[in-house]
Amino acid sequence: MNNYKTVSKKLKKNNKGSSTRILYLLVLLMYGIQLAIVLFAYNVKSKYDLTIVKQRASANKKIMIISELQNKITNLTGIVNESNPDLELINNQISNLQSKSNESSRLTSMRTIEKNFIYFAWTKFFDIDKAMFITSKGVVIDLDVKPSNAFKYSRSGMFNVSDQELKNALMELNEKVRSQYVNSFVAGNIGKFNNLDIDYLVDGISIAYCKNGVLKLNGE
User: Fold this and answer.
1) Which residues of 25-62 are buried (b: 16+ CB within 10 A; e: fewer)?
2) Is 93 a residue whose pLDDT tops 50?
3) How many structural domains are present in the chain?
């Protein structure tokens, strides 16, 4: 009986010691977990702070680059402004040359078409003595009456034929003029035939005109 009590006391004492050790281990474990959490949080914060520092450094570097580019642009703008008079002078000279070139093309076109009128635009009644572009849209054509029809012409732009016969002869000539104008490879520098104002003269006296493609006798 005494032995049972002794063993029982020893077991209770041992159980009490084991519980204390378990409780101690649990406390240590909790402290360890808390310490791990703190260390983890500190590590995350350090990485975050390092990222922020890097981002700020990168942003500052970009700001410096942008500032340098702005300074370069400012310097280049100053150089361009200083040389602006020269550039303006060059542009004016180029514009003048282009204007002269365009005018030269128009004059060449006019002369070529004038020659086409003289060489190819003739009829049984009329020959073309001279053709002149007074402006890019105004044409004066001097006519000669053919010897075979000389008896039909009196003087001072007067004819011994009916207005209709004279108009028909001039309309035939006007169609030849139109054909030579349209077929000319340089006519594009002047414009459409219907935009031309053509004045037909005999002995320097106007006898008919063509406007918007329609021919009329003077006084008609």
Assistant:
1) eeeeeeeeeeeeeeeeeeeeeeeeeeeeeeeeeeeeee
2) yes
3) 2
